[in-house]
Amino acid sequence: MTVTLPPNYKPSEKEEYLNDLQLEYFRQKLLRWRLDLLGEAKMTRRNLRGDTKLNPDLADRASLETDRSVELRTRDRARKLISKIDQAVQRIEEGSYGYCEETSEPIGIKRLDARPIATLSVEAQERHERMEKIHIDD
Q: What residues contact 111, with CB distance under 8 A and at least 6 apart?
């Protein structure tokens, strides 16, 4: 089934939770985000290829290597994010998108709009973070 979003559509909590319009909104939002990340990765590859000139100045070379390292770490985070985006799109297709993996409760439109790859409700996420902090402090 193809759903066309009205111009400037924003999901509302007044609508039925994750109706066809909302699901299409989130699917398109996720796919645009993925496309942006892939475009940034392509630019990074071009920049890294262009920066292969040997620079005789040690300070310039060190600065370039630091910049490359930061850029590669950023790309690695983007790669992981693309994987999470793909998983979210898959959950939309399977019908499990928007529901907490721990409680099966709705995650909420505002949270999904802010973090469309969310898999936990705010409450479950807070519990998870508290548990992480407890274990880190041990």
A: 118, 121, 122
Q: Write down all domains in the chain, each with its CATH number in brackets.
A: 18-97 (1.20.120.910), 98-138 (no CATH)
Q: Give residue-wise pLDDT tens across range 65-96.
A: 777 788 888 888 999 999 999 999 999 999 99
79-84 contacts, C-beta under 8 A, 24 or more apart:
79/41, 81/37, 81/117, 82/34, 82/37, 82/38, 84/117
pLDDT in tens, 28-44: 999 999 999 999 888 87
Angle between helices 20-50 and 58-94 (to 10 degrees): 160
Measured torsion, CA atoms of residues 33, 34, 37, 41, in degrees rounded to the nearest 10:
-170
| pLDDT in the model for residue 35 | 96
For 69, the token pair is: 């390292």
